[in-house]
Design goal:
With 482 residues, this protein is mainly α. It contains 13 helices and four strands. It has helices at 2-50, 57-86, 91-123, 127-159, 183-208, 216-219, 234-249, 274-287, 306-331, 334-358, 364-393, 401-436, 439-473; strands at 221-227, 255-258, 264-269, 296-300. It has a four-stranded antiparallel beta sheet with strand order 2-3-1-4, with helices on one face. It is globular, with a radius of gyration of 25 Å. The termini are far apart. The relative contact order is 0.14.
Length: 482
């Protein structure tokens, strides 16, 4: 209950900050989007209740991701409207064209993520299904609110007399940034980070017998129950009991819960030896006024079975295959699809590196975290690729490596502010969870924040650069012949 209430509080504060940010950056369209997002949150809560979806931490992740996607859809539209205004068109015409031009990027990004959620729902189990349900509901609603609700709110505000161009903003002409020219630097940075993670896993595997800090959900452990003689609150358990347990086990992965209707507390830890069990009993008796005769211990099995892990892995692989096929079909070029999937692999490896280096406990939330990054990153990449496809279609000249680099750099620069703003709004939501959440929430939010930053980085600095290299060297119509 504590985790749920703090998550809701963090979510509300984060959502309020996002609304303020949207209005400050996007002016009147930002207000329209904020009203649509409020309706979106209300609808998603109603549907979660209607379908009786159990809200778990992975489910919360799915909602956060879907809110980020909903914000992104609005940001894409607003960027398009500003670009049309900058060409000298009227506000009304710009709104109409802006929604039309944004449609393909929004549909491709959302359908790609929707494919992943459907596959995860069909093949996943346990926490993976919970994540997939909330994500699928969120994607469908985000499409409706962005393309229908926001549109009519914006048209209504315009009809009420809010027609000044200053209320909508005008895109500024920006000099293209040479992202393609710095591809070697980006690849080197990513290589060093991933190598650090692999080395860390190798060292820990050799010294501790496990590459990652697998939690109780994966490894099982020891359950110790003791009667503390008084009703303990969550804060009492976190502050007065857990630190002593961590001192004995030397491990921060401690799950302590009250036994309802009693004064007992059950403490789950890694598997303890007989000596460690005795040391824990003595510590609780000495420091927490526990009657040693009430302390019992038993071994517990992992809650995430090998079958559940293989189901999750299979679901992710099948999702990637279907996403690859869809992107290939939509962009008529497998090099777009291949570079997008390779960027996803990059993001997953970086998130695993964070788990390896910081030694965050790998439990059920690990699967949800990886899935969230996959869904978020592919959506961001698709938007950039959509702009590259559009700009290539406008080029009448014969394609050369120089022209291709120019188009890629121009497309990245045009979508840069959108990538940053969308990443920032999603990051704010997760950061509030990290700031205000209980320990289990913070352990989930930290790698998720790293993954969101990595997803934005890979879309800008890895995916497009990989596509450029493939376009030069691979395929029948490659530009550099062997």
């Amino acid at each position: 209950q504590e985790a749920i209430s703090t998550s809701l509080k963090a979510g509300l504060i984060g959502f309020a900050i996002v609304i303020v940010f949207m209005i400050a950056v996007y002016l009147l369209p930002g207000l329209a989007a904020s009203l649509a997002l409020c309706l979106y949150v209300g609808l998603i809560l109603i549907l979660l209740v209607a379908f009786e979806v159990t809200l778990t931490l992975p489910g919360v992740a799915g909602i956060i991701l879907s809110i980020g996607i909903a914000v992104d859809a609005n940001v894409i539209v607003f960027a398009r409207i500003r670009e049309e205004i900058a060409t000298g068109k009227s506000v009304q015409t710009s709104m109409k064209i802006g929604f039309q031009k944004a449609m393909s990027a929004i549909l491709d990004g959302n359908i790609t993520t929707l494919i992943a959620s459907v596959v995860l729902m069909a093949l996943g189990s346990g926490t993976v299904k919970g994540f997939a349900y909330t994500l699928m509901i969120g994607i469908i609603l985000s499409l409706f609110t962005a393309m229908v609700v926001t549109r009519y709110i914006l048209y209504s505000l315009y009809a009420l007399g809010l027609k000044s161009e200053k209320l909508y903003g005008r895109a500024k002409e920006r000099k293209s940034i040479d992202f393609i020219g710095k591809k070697a630097v980006f690849f080197t940075i990513s290589g060093i980070i991933i190598a650090a993670g692999l080395i860390s896993m190798g060292v820990h595997s050799a010294t501790e017998g496990k590459a990652l800090n697998y939690g109780l959900d994966f490894m099982g452990g020891t359950s110790t129950t003791a009667d503390f003689g008084k009703d303990m609150t969550i804060e009492d358990i976190e502050n007065d009991i857990v630190p002593y347990v961590e001192k004995v086990t030397g491990d921060s992965d401690v799950q302590a819960t009250k036994v309802e209707g009693t004064t007992q507390v059950t403490i789950k830890t890694r598997t303890l030896s007989l000596d460690e069990r005795q040391e824990l009993e003595d510590t609780l008796a000495e420091n927490c006024d526990v009657d040693a005769s009430t302390i019992t211990s038993q071994s517990i099995s992992s809650t995430i079975s090998g079958e559940m892990r293989s189901d999750a892995l299979k679901a992710v692989i099948v999702s990637c295959i279907f996403m690859l096929l869809y992107i290939w079909f939509r962009f008529k070029d497998i090099r777009f699809a291949a570079s997008a999937i390779l960027a996803l692999v990059h993001d997953v490896l970086v998130v695993i590196t964070v788990y390896a280096l910081v030694r965050i406990s790998v439990g059920s939330t690990f699967i949800a975290c990886v899935l969230t990054i996959v869904g978020y990153s592919i959506n961001d990449t698709i938007v950039i690729f959509d702009r590259i496809r559009e700009n290539l279609g406008r080029t009448a000249a014969k394609q050369t490596p120089e022209l291709l680099a120019e188009v890629a750099n121009k497309s990245l620069t045009q979508t840069l502010s959108r990538s940053i703003n969308t990443s920032l709004t999603t990051f704010i939501m997760v950061f509030m969870l990290f700031l205000l959440g209980v320990a289990s929430i913070r352990e989930f939010a930290l790698p998720l924040m790293a993954g969101l930053l990595c997803g934005a980085y890979s879309s800008i600095c890895i995916a497009t650069e990989l596509w450029y290299i493939m376009r030069l060297h691979l395929g029948k119509n490659r530009l550099i012949k062997k």
